[in-house]
UniProtKB/TrEMBL annotation, chain A:
One of its GO terms (molecular function) is CoA-transferase activity. It comes from Saccharothrix texasensis. Belongs to the 3-oxoacid CoA-transferase subunit B family. This is Glutaconate CoA-transferase subunit A. Pfam families: CoA_trans. InterPro entries: CoA_trans_fam_I, NagB/RpiA_transferase-like. Keywords: Transferase.
């Protein structure tokens, strides 16, 4: 049964120094408010996991929270590069960042394996690319039925998962809809989880196609209206595309970034 | 011209896996001109999206609002892409080599200490592997068109004929490379990319200059038609 708590308290319980943690969201429902709380609380040595580390991860990396990044596409979607990510990889600033790199299909399947309680997932992927040589978490496996050689990817087990959703009820059942990415898989792949929501309601109205995470698979729920900004929450807000464009300039320069960081902390 | 040429490459009724940027612009242009029944699939999980404006990212709300269905990301890759249910995949490239291999990972230095760190793979390796065919859209420069890519993010034809087949890849690979200068297609035997068409006003010498390998030119080199007024009007409306 999930505990409903204020954001700072929930983050303090769920995200700890040295954790392997995913703040998931595929463009939609990215848990920015929770990520900023992690920056404020000064978490360190995190292994950050996400298919599309975008602006939120650029901020966490620039703030020095991360030791390692496990990912499949690190850019500012539709805009360009992530400059804090690039600065960490190319110049070790503010500290060196270890990378473990996959494809989207590989990452998605790694989450599925962990959510399914299996040690690995199988896919027809990575073939012919230079990616398998870069990580021990990609291997080949022979199908016991056909003999076909396929790719195996290790389950992506998380210490913590943080996602954002539209609503929860007072018992901590969580409802989300629209582009649902790998949020469900990330929560089910994690030992501890936090869901920030636009609002806590007395009763969840059923919505066709909406994903419900029942209270007993969620540890903490925190109300954070607008907590996905500059990403969005379908039916609550729209994506602030201007901020994503503006981030390009803020993040290019270490001093401008430091000023931004000061405004969050 | 690159966008218009890419749009023209999409036939009506095709199912197209669309990335953001030029591919999305081209696919939406095609849907508003000659290919009204083009099916747009975005990796965020939207199938059959019909956006009334161009999304900035592959996960903008307008895609979910107008889609036939919205599914999770594992499903997009496992059910829809992997078994070959997508006709055309659109890819960009930071580097492209003479056998259509693509690099979007690192340039220069070594992998751990790269000269330039790029965004990485995203959906591209499996799009390159599993779509029935791949269209690559890339600006033709000597830096981008290299003899051999620094990192194979997405597999084209490897080092030539027969390699895709040996690896068991189901899709036909890069069948069309559209640049700001013209169009390249793989040689049916050797799989080396050959210049087969030039855009209006471009000459062969420029194509040679902006290619980092000894570029082969087709004997029956074609010449693309300039954009029509209609195409330009729709494109302006889209990118306004």
């Amino acid at each position: 049964m999930a505990t409903i708590a204020p954001l700072a308290e929930a983050v303090a319980h769920v995200v700890r120094d040295g954790d392997t943690v995913a703040f998931e969201g595929f463009t939609h429902l990215i848990p920015f408010a929770a990520g900023h709380e992690v920056i404020r609380q000064g978490r360190r040595e995190l292994t950050l996991v996400r298919m599309t580390p975008d602006v939120l991860y650029d901020q966490l990396i620039g703030a020095g929270c991360a030791r390692k990044l496990v990912f499949s596409w690190g850019g500012n979607p539709g805009v360009g590069s992530l400059h804090r990510f690039r600065d960490a990889v190319q110049n070790g600033w503010p500290r060196p960042l270890e990378l473990e790199e996959h494809s989207h299909a590989g990452m998605a399947n790694r989450y599925v394996a962990a959510a399914s309680g299996l040690p690995f997932a199988v896919l027809r992927g990575y073939t012919g690319t230079d990616l398998p040589g870069r990580t021990a978490n990609i291997a080949s496996v022979t199908c016991p039925f056909t003999g076909e050689v396929l790719t195996a990817v290790a389950a992506l087990e998380l210490d913590a998962a943080v996602v954002h959703a539209q609503r929860a009820d007072r018992h901590g059942n969580v409802q989300l809809w629209g582009i649902t990415g790998v949020q469900k898989e990330a929560v089910l792949a994690a030992t501890r989880s936090l869901v920030t929501v636009e609002e806590v309601v007395d009763e969840l109205e059923p919505r066709p196609g909406a994903v419900v995470l029942p209270s007993w698979v969620v540890d903490y729920v925190a109300e954070a209206p607008g907590g996905a900004h500059p990403s969005y929450a379908h039916d609550y807000s729209v994506r602030d595309n201007d901020f994503y464009v503006a981030w390009d300039e803020i993040s290019r320069d270490r001093e401008k970034f430091a000023r931004w960081l000061g405004s969050v902390a | 011209m690159m966008t218009v040429a890419a749009a023209r490459a999409l036939r009506d009724g095709a199912v197209c896996f669309v990335g953001i940027g030029l591919p999305s612009t081209a696919a939406n242009l095609a849907r508003r001109t000659h290919a009204r029944n083009l099916v747009l699939v975005y990796e965020s999980g939207t199938i059959g999206a019909k956006p009334d404006r161009l999304p900035l990212s592959i996960g903008d709300g307008v895609l979910a609002d107008t889609a036939v269905s919205v599914v999770g990301v594992p499903e997009i890759f496992n059910y829809w892409l992997q078994p070959g249910r997508i006709d055309v995949g659109f890819l960009g490239a930071a580097q492209l080599d003479r056998f259509g291999n693509i690099n979007t990972t690192v340039i220069g230095g070594d992998y751990r200490n790269p000269g330039v760190r790029l965004p990485g793979a995203g959906g591209a390796p499996e799009i390159a592997a599993s779509c029935r065919e791949v269209v690559v859209v890339v600006r033709q420069t000597e830096r981008a068109f290299v003899e051999r890519v620094d990192f194979v993010t997405s597999f084209g034809f490897g080092s030539g004929a027969g390699e895709r087949e040996r690896l068991g890849l189901t899709g036909a690979g890069p069948q069309l490379v559209i640049t700001d200068l013209g169009v390249l297609r793989p040689d049916p035997v050797t799989r080396e990319l050959v210049l087969t068409e030039l855009h209006p006003g471009v000459d062969v010498a420029t194509a040679h200059e902006r290619t980092g390998w000894d570029l082969r030119v087709a004997a029956d080199l074609g010449r693309g038609e300039p954009p029509t007024d209609h195409e330009l009007a729709v494109l302006r409306e889209l990118t306004r």
